């Protein structure tokens, strides 16, 4: 345990009680019992859920931490102004989605929520504050935000960049034991003091050598670059998966051999149906837009290819299903196992399952979806948005099921889209009894025992693995 230099009675407010605001502040409250942490949000149902037994997000270990601190030094409220007024340090962890309309639509970050939060801070703050960018934002956002904050001319603000690197599903362990904490500040006296103040909070549990301090722009850019590099690795291994299928090599063997080179490393080399999640695509597109704005067209194109490859991987998976099922899936029942963008989360933002499902609907398949954590309403919302059909139309093609077994009843194929652990231990013998023959498995995550499935009689396609001789591969995907 590191020494505790934080002033007693320090008050922290976080604007935005989402996947980042909730877990990061809960961990901070746990590690800094003498600090008061208030999380505020404009969403009344979200705050009500944070104050209930059913938290609004599923994240392993979160429940325990929230219940240990809530009502002691951790509070959830819709009183945004009060939270701002009382705080010494204000984190802003609001959403920064890709812009849908106007200049930069489809690429640039939409900073509307950030600006609204900043204007609220400017109008109600009466004493100097340290304002911390927790959301992922384009470079130079701190500068713009500082201008908005100081526009009201009421008090002084120091704006810091402190990007978050947690991954969903492992958020609590990532926060407890981060590879690094990055803090960017202005290189002047008050900037340095603000950086030191925030570093002291993290030093409650993060070793000092892992708390990196830098200037604001380097910090803002590092976050976009980190996500782009991680996504680039996934697209690279997915590109390799296509070579493996065409050549008979095994993507997991290639990843193992390549990853043992300590300069490359073994993480993020798992071939899949394509990466999802709220941030990879958004942050790459944001970087692409920045590059284009700076006249760096070739750099923009380089990073954009990561997204292109990801889109191609999702389409490749769908094509394998269609060609595998004798070139048509019209009227055929397909059990789609997994709707979350990865295991151990109920989050579906940019999940590959959405696009896979949209394409299968387009092909007039009958899709039966099972996911252990995703709410039914969320699936209907995602599919109506993706297909631009109303719910009744979508329901002509899609059924939601309470188990993988139910989804597989009468199905021609199982398609694994999320690597939930429970899919590894299903009784595939029993499942096959209730499926149409020949029964197919399309393993988009390489989590199943393909040899065992083939022994049971399944025809199996697995991403980046030597192709099953019984699979229709007349068309290369
Ligand atoms: N989801 C993740 O795993 C990670 C997300 N990030 C970044 O963190 C930011 C937040 O992401 P999430 O937590 O996933 O978003 P989210 O959508 O789950 O949560 C954002 C919250 O902010 C609230 N909000 C928006 N405007 C507000 C305002 N003016 N006043 C008060 N509350 C307001 C919304 O009601 C919502 O509850 C994004 O910039 C994202 O790129 C960074 C690292 C990881
Ligand atoms: O800025 C963010 O939002 C976060 O984005 C990612 O975290 P997250 O999206 O929650 O989850 P990841 O574990 O990175 O997975 C992203 C996607 O890539 C896929 N993936 C990941 C790794 C891999 O080897 N193969 C692969 O297909 C996952 O299944 C998932 O769909 C980063 O890992 C975090 O560091 C970052 O803070």
UniProtKB/TrEMBL annotation:
<feature type="active site" description="Nucleophile">
    <location>
        <position position="279"/>
    </location>
</feature>
<feature type="binding site">
    <location>
        <begin position="135"/>
        <end position="136"/>
    </location>
    <ligand>
        <name>NAD(+)</name>
    </ligand>
</feature>
<keyword id="KW-0520">NAD</keyword>
<feature type="binding site">
    <location>
        <begin position="164"/>
        <end position="168"/>
    </location>
    <ligand>
        <name>substrate</name>
    </ligand>
</feature>
<feature type="binding site">
    <location>
        <begin position="270"/>
        <end position="276"/>
    </location>
    <ligand>
        <name>substrate</name>
    </ligand>
</feature>
<feature type="domain" description="UDP-glucose/GDP-mannose dehydrogenase C-terminal">
    <location>
        <begin position="335"/>
        <end position="450"/>
    </location>
</feature>
<dbReference type="Pfam" id="PF03721">
    <property type="entry name" value="UDPG_MGDP_dh_N"/>
</dbReference>
<dbReference type="InterPro" id="IPR014027">
    <property type="entry name" value="UDP-Glc/GDP-Man_DH_C"/>
</dbReference>
<dbReference type="Pfam" id="PF00984">
    <property type="entry name" value="UDPG_MGDP_dh"/>
</dbReference>
<feature type="binding site">
    <location>
        <position position="168"/>
    </location>
    <ligand>
        <name>NAD(+)</name>
    </ligand>
</feature>
<keyword id="KW-0560">Oxidoreductase</keyword>
<feature type="binding site">
    <location>
        <begin position="279"/>
        <end position="282"/>
    </location>
    <ligand>
        <name>NAD(+)</name>
    </ligand>
</feature>
<feature type="binding site">
    <location>
        <begin position="223"/>
        <end position="227"/>
    </location>
    <ligand>
        <name>substrate</name>
    </ligand>
</feature>
<feature type="binding site">
    <location>
        <begin position="16"/>
        <end position="21"/>
    </location>
    <ligand>
        <name>NAD(+)</name>
    </ligand>
</feature>
<comment type="pathway">
    <text>Nucleotide-sugar biosynthesis; UDP-alpha-D-glucuronate biosynthesis; UDP-alpha-D-glucuronate from UDP-alpha-D-glucose: step 1/1.</text>
</comment>
<dbReference type="GO" id="GO:0003979">
    <property type="term" value="F:UDP-glucose 6-dehydrogenase activity"/>
</dbReference>
<dbReference type="InterPro" id="IPR036220">
    <property type="entry name" value="UDP-Glc/GDP-Man_DH_C_sf"/>
</dbReference>
<feature type="binding site">
    <location>
        <begin position="341"/>
        <end position="342"/>
    </location>
    <ligand>
        <name>substrate</name>
    </ligand>
</feature>
<dbReference type="InterPro" id="IPR028356">
    <property type="entry name" value="UDPglc_DH_euk"/>
</dbReference>
<protein>
    <recommendedName>
        <fullName>UDP-glucose 6-dehydrogenase</fullName>
        <ecNumber>1.1.1.22</ecNumber>
    </recommendedName>
</protein>
<dbReference type="GO" id="GO:0006065">
    <property type="term" value="P:UDP-glucuronate biosynthetic process"/>
</dbReference>
<feature type="binding site">
    <location>
        <position position="263"/>
    </location>
    <ligand>
        <name>substrate</name>
    </ligand>
</feature>
<dbReference type="InterPro" id="IPR036291">
    <property type="entry name" value="NAD(P)-bd_dom_sf"/>
</dbReference>
<feature type="binding site">
    <location>
        <position position="46"/>
    </location>
    <ligand>
        <name>NAD(+)</name>
    </ligand>
</feature>
<dbReference type="InterPro" id="IPR001732">
    <property type="entry name" value="UDP-Glc/GDP-Man_DH_N"/>
</dbReference>
<dbReference type="GO" id="GO:0005634">
    <property type="term" value="C:nucleus"/>
</dbReference>
<feature type="binding site">
    <location>
        <position position="445"/>
    </location>
    <ligand>
        <name>substrate</name>
    </ligand>
</feature>
<dbReference type="InterPro" id="IPR017476">
    <property type="entry name" value="UDP-Glc/GDP-Man"/>
</dbReference>
<feature type="binding site">
    <location>
        <position position="349"/>
    </location>
    <ligand>
        <name>NAD(+)</name>
    </ligand>
</feature>
<dbReference type="Pfam" id="PF03720">
    <property type="entry name" value="UDPG_MGDP_dh_C"/>
</dbReference>
<comment type="similarity">
    <text>Belongs to the UDP-glucose/GDP-mannose dehydrogenase family.</text>
</comment>
<dbReference type="GO" id="GO:0006024">
    <property type="term" value="P:glycosaminoglycan biosynthetic process"/>
</dbReference>
<feature type="binding site">
    <location>
        <position position="41"/>
    </location>
    <ligand>
        <name>NAD(+)</name>
    </ligand>
</feature>
<dbReference type="GO" id="GO:0051287">
    <property type="term" value="F:NAD binding"/>
</dbReference>
<dbReference type="InterPro" id="IPR008927">
    <property type="entry name" value="6-PGluconate_DH-like_C_sf"/>
</dbReference>
<feature type="binding site">
    <location>
        <begin position="94"/>
        <end position="98"/>
    </location>
    <ligand>
        <name>NAD(+)</name>
    </ligand>
</feature>
<dbReference type="InterPro" id="IPR014026">
    <property type="entry name" value="UDP-Glc/GDP-Man_DH_dimer"/>
</dbReference>
